[in-house]
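Quick one: structure for this chain?
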Amino acid sequence: MTTIAYYISDYGYGHASRSIAIIRKLLEESEVKIIVCHSFALSFIKASLNSDSVSYRNIKTNRYRLFSRKRINFFC
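Got it. Here's what it folds into:
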């Protein structure tokens, strides 16, 4: 059995909803265990995936560093 750690961006529900479709397809087509790593929409993902082959880790998956012209660092 293959194990996949599947990290989903924490920005909104769009990444989560698209990932749910991909995870469902992976579960249909192969013997796989998937560890979903996410925080923002984790309850939505759990409600959408009903499988013993999926486990969850509540972690923040994004930390973007943005730069302005004045070289001031912003963290999102």
